[in-house]
Amino acid sequence: MWQTKSLICQARALERTWTTRTSLRSTNHSQMAVADLILNFWTSWFNIDHPGGNGDYERLEAIRFYYRERVCARPTAMEARTTDWVAAADTGEVVHSSLEKGFWCINKEQPYGRICSNYHVRFQCPPGTKWSPWGRWGTCSATCGGGRRIRRRTCVRSSMTVQCVGRPVEIQKCGKSPCPGTRVCTEGHPSEDCSRCVCDSHVLVGEVYSVTGVPVAGARVALANRPKIIRARTNVKGQFRLPGICSSSSTLLSIRKEKFAPADVSTSSNTTGLSWVRAKPYIVKHPEDKVRYEGGRVLLCCKATGSPTPDKYYWYHNGTLLDRKLYKYEEDLVLRSLKPEQSGEYHCKASSSAGSIKSTPALLTVIGTPACNSTPETHLVRLPMDCFQPGTGSKFYNAGRCPHNKCAGSLDFDMRCRDGAGFCCGVKSMESRTIDCGTYSLPIRAVTECGCQKCVEPTVLVRGRVVTADNNEPLRFGHIYIGRERVGTTGYQGGFTLQITPDTQRLVVNFVDPTQKFIDTPKVFIFDKRGGSIYHDVKVMRKQIPIDINAGETNTIDLGEIKGEDPIGQLVIPPNSFHKENGEIYEGTVKASVTFIDPRNITTAAAAPGDLNFVDAEGDMLPLRTYGMFSVDFRDDTNKEVLGAGAVQVLLDTQHVKMQEHIPAMKLWSLNPDTGVWEEESDFTYTQTTTGGHGRSKREERTFLIGNMEIRERRLFNLDVPENRRCYVKVRAYMSDKFLSTEQLEGVVITLINLEPKPGYSSNPRAWGRFDSVITGPNGACLPAFCDAQRPDAYTAYVTAMMGGEELEAAPSSPKMNPNIIGVSQPYLDKIDYQRSDHEDPALKKTAFRINLAKPNSNNLDETNGPIYPYQSLIACENAPVDANHFRFFRVEKDKYEYNVVPFQENDLTTWTGDYLSWWPNPQEFRACFIKVRIHGQKEVMVRSKNMGGTHRETKGKLYGIRDIRSTRDMREANTSAACVEFKCSGMLFDQAEVDRSLISILPQGNCRRISTNNLLQEYLTKHPPTAQNNESHAFTMLAPVDPLGHNYGIYTVTDQNPRVAKEIAIGRCFDGTSDGFSREMKSDSGVALTYSCPERKISRESLFQRLQTNPGQTLSQMARAMREMEGLQVQRSATQHPLTKRISTVD
Fold first, then answer.
1. Which of 391-400, 901-910, 1108-1117 has the lowest mean pLDDT?
2. What is the residue range of 1039's domain?
3. Residues 746, 794: one domain?
4. Are residues 1052 and 917 in the same domain?
5. Using an 8 Å Cβ cutoff, are 684 and 667 in contact?
6. What gap in Å lies between CA 572 and CA 632, rounded to an integer?
7. How far apart are CA 569 and CA 898, in angstroms?
8. Which residues form the Ig-like domain (predicted)?
9. Vertex 871: Cα angle to 869 and 877 (nearest 5)
């Protein structure tokens, strides 16, 4: 009775209001209220905040974060008191409370300048139940013949009126082994432990093969119910003998071997066991970035493959393991009732007995309000060189753009692994504006409002060309594999195009030569998920000419390709080691081809397969430093059947390992062609041998590292060591050598090759150790590299940049190093020792630079601002401001300009906007058109194309854009150059309703006149009206052809899912003058559409009368031609209404 009175008083106390601004849930004075209070219970007191700063915030969300198990999901009441035990209602302070949000007090709301007291709170919860952990199992009721044992647990509850769900007792069977004397054997007699029947006179004979049919030697054979007791081992032929196994009953055998997945076989059905090579897990489905509103739900998916199949998955949020019991996840993670604090990075880890692998992280964004700001961002568009805005003189105009960040749109279903195109902040409305350029005006479409819309989802393509590393011979009609599936064939010139799914994170492509001239080459391709396509120049190694060896003898093959240098190692094959695919030992002549990728030859770096990474036990991908790779190809004497080899030894000469700390860590690795990841084959052991040769005057003792391997399939092998001294190098690419921050290039492939210098010669690299490639984003690229803090020249790097097959130039280092040009301040620049590839010889190419990889000293202020960052400072490298130290590349093609009335960034397809004046009308298919113009003259000439609407009712007479390009000198022919000028293709506009024949004007700038037009092009234009008038000698006007004409017309058209790739391929064909070739050297005599004569004007001091006296005929002819041209110009001035045309037509 006393307890009931106490609770009633407590209920009345809770009825009091704290202030007029505070509302609490009141408690009724009925008997029902008393019953509720009896059943409910109070939590402990919580005090997670102090009144400093803005006030005291005892938010329920934060309390649950720190004390997840102490607060129920829906509290029924709350009590708040100060730490002096004064009730909140008695303090006179303005406070707020909510059973959903908690309790808070704000300092600035308090009267008379007071600050909030320090409060603690507690909550009233409905009765709860919880099982205690299970106790230990009791003893078994029987030791044999079958028994049972029991374990118990207790229900912990806050009220006697509620019960736990489930059973308090669990029973388990035990003592399953038969009791002595009880087993009855139809054949033989029981074993000593009565677990099986034994037949002393019977011997089980079996064989163990790999899935490829090769015998597996050294496999352990045991009974499945006694796996730790080894009964037999397989011999070199994969055979084993197991005595005492009866034939009348089925016996389950367990077969185990390192690097193989375990296999269990039954003797009653088959005595031959197939063993699968154990493969580490590999992620085939990565979680994807998602955006959700607060309170919504999300599904994150992960899937891995391997042998055995991964059986455990772990999910992490910002690096913290999520509770499996709480989230109930396996492969997929489901999050419901999302809150903002659940935003962040999520990744999964898949594990099996063979190892672990981590997925790439996915970013989950939980927002309470729309993430798309309707006000456009600033986006400066560069104007033509001759456009000077009155008043400002600025060369840029703010056209605005939307940030294209993810936003939470209205999905039809929110529980898919992939949201499809998803929703992005995009253009909602645009307006036409006119830019005053002084002498003429320029139209532009500017963004006025942004909104959440469906993202533009570009098609992701991988394109490129496969050629040999020695002489660029193409891999013709080579087979292309992704995993074990053949997905394509290279062309006659070695070209290939692969379309991949947008959710692909890591793309491993294997190129196989069916003629066996080149080694199989797996490549790990990087690609730009935002924009579709990257061009790869793939190098492959030519196979070494096979040599004949005797399979019955010990054979030694050198590993080394540098003439006059000792080999890095040797391959030692014991006698009778070769076998056929069916496991039969091969005897006779073997044609052996061993191709070694020698790191001492810098040119072989581009041909190295894979990306020199391995996966550690925790599932993290880590880098390797190579000392050489080799590919082996053993065939029978007819050179047809592929042979395998077992117990092969690899010897590595330690004199080539200059870093002594690498010797004990050296391992032998093989490349998994499906995953592109290097897998450990064996460790190395020391041995000494006496050897001589290669110019040695006497025999001497040399130390080798020996590793053992088995050639089971056609794999590449690697002599590598894991390296943990790592840094990041910051590199940016620019449109020109002005290095303007607004002219950074995205989508450029930056490649860094680690070099190891010769001792004492820091400028003479000894060998390359690894390579990495990264695509530049809006803030450049950060490339991983090995570095050293003690010796600045312990590691050096060779860095190159490619964009669509075009090599970019590095910032110059001679005649002297200029920190403002290179982008790195002193004195760090001297320590790095930056040198462009032409530093010592101006005749060399300018497309690379070499640096010392000196790890920055955190105590030296000069070394804390880039361009080299410690490995743990990746975020600082990626987010570094543009004025921080960095290395620079720039495009070689100068005097090139592009202007679009509707702004569009070709390196980010998500910036595409649907508009009638868009240069590219279809975001899924980009068609690039070029016309080849030949110039006769001593100097290169700027050629402009002015592109306007021609026949469409919405665009007729309106400008699409301008293209300017300087002609390129033909190195084979004097006083001749040519230009490949882009023009706006004819075709459907963005609404796909009506064709527009674009009106194109080709205008060379200077003293030029057209002397010929391609006959086939002229005939085509005549037969496909309407025909544009061409009354001017210095310009050419046409309505662009709808058909994709070829080099015979001087027109080059390429369609691709990426605009930059389409343009690069078209330019390559235009330079070559063919419809299927590619060249970077201008061939001005092939595939020309227009020819102009652009002679230099001679400077003469003779008057008109003097010229009439000395050469009257020529002078009169020049005067007559000038008058006719002047008449034509006057007609042009009166006929045209567009001010831009008026200005161009008067240019000499």
1. 1108-1117
2. 909-1093
3. yes
4. yes
5. yes
6. 12
7. 54
8. 281-365
9. 40
* 444 domain-assigned: yes
**913 and 966 share a domain?**
yes
Confidence at 930, pLDDT banded by 50, 70, 90: very high
Cα–Cα nearest to 865, from 883, 847, 840: 883
DSSP codes joined into one string, 117-186: --EEEEEEE---EEEPPP------S-SSS-EEEEEE--EEES-TT---SS-SEEEEEE--SPPTT----S
In a domain, 509, yes or no: yes
Asked whether the predicted pLDDT for residue 890 surpasses 60, the reply is: yes
With H, G, I as helix, E, B as strand and everything else as coil, classify residue 1080: coil
Run of H or E including 37 = helix 31-39
Widest distance between CA atoms in the chain: 138
Q: Clarify whether residues 810 and 701 are in a common domain.
A: no
| Alpha-carbon dihedral 1111, 1117, 1118, 1122, rounded to 10 degrees | 160
- Specify whether 786 is located in the same domain as 751: yes
Region of residue 794 (left: phi > 0; alpha: psi -120 to 50; beta: else): alpha
> Contact, 294 vs 280, CB < 8 A?
no
DSSP 8-state symbol, 343: -
Q: Which residue has the tokens 């006393």?
A: 2
Asked if 530 and 574 sit in the same domain, the reply is no
Residue 334 belongs to domain with CATH number: 2.60.40.10
DSSP letters spanning 460-515: EEEEEEEEETTT--B-TT-EEEETTEEEEE--TTSEEEEEE-TT---EEEEEE-TT
Is 929 within a domain? yes
Q: What is the CATH number of the domain that holds 208?
A: 2.60.40.1120
- Cβ density class 992-1006: b for 16+ within 10 Å, e for less: eeeebbbbbbbbbbb
Residues 663 and 570 in one domain: yes
CA distance 312 to 351: 5
Question: Rounded to the nearest 5 degrees, what angle is found at the Cα of 460, between the Cα atoms of 455 and 462?
Answer: 165
Total domain count, the chain: 9
User: For tokens 């002599």, what's the residue?
Assistant: 719
Residues β-bridged to residue 254:
222, 264
Cα–Cα distance list, 477 to 313, 981, 1082 (Å): 41, 32, 28
Radius of gyration for the alpha carbons in the chain, expressed in angstroms and rounded: 39
Straight-line distance from the first to the last Cα atom of the chain, in angstroms, rounded to the nearest whole number: 111
Give me the pLDDT at residue 30, please.
Answer: 36
Looking at the DSSP bridge assignments, the partners of residue 851 are 797
| Structural contact between residues 634 and 550, judged by C-beta atoms closer than 8 angstroms | no
For 67-76, 144-153, 894-903, 1115-1124, which range has the lowest pLDDT when averaged over its residues?
1115-1124
- Residue 290: CA atoms inside 13 Å, Cβ hemisphere, count? 31
What tokens does 212 get?
Answer: 């490829």
* Whether residue 827 has a cis bond before it, omega within 30° of 0: yes
Residue 476 to residue 463: CA distance in whole angstroms: 15
The predicted model scores a pTM of 0.54
* Residue 171 maps to a domain: no
Cis-peptide, bond into residue 1026, ω within 30° of zero = yes
SS3 content of the chain, % helix, strand, coil (to 5): 15, 40, 45
d(CA 165, CA 1008): 93
The answer to whether the CB of 465 falls within 8 A of the CB of 538 is: yes
More confident residue, 890 or 182: 890
Q: Are residues 518 and 418 in the same domain?
A: no
Tokens of 164: 């736990």
Which segments of 154-307 are extended strands (E)? 155-157, 169-174, 189-190, 197-210, 220-223, 226-233, 239-245, 252-256, 260-261, 263-266, 272-277, 279-285, 290-293, 298-300, 303-307
Map tokens 């997840």 to a residue.
68
Q: Is residue 1134 pLDDT above 50, yes or no? A: no
Which residues fall within 8 angstroms of residue 367, CB to CB, at 6 or more apart?
Answer: 291, 292, 293, 294, 340, 407, 408
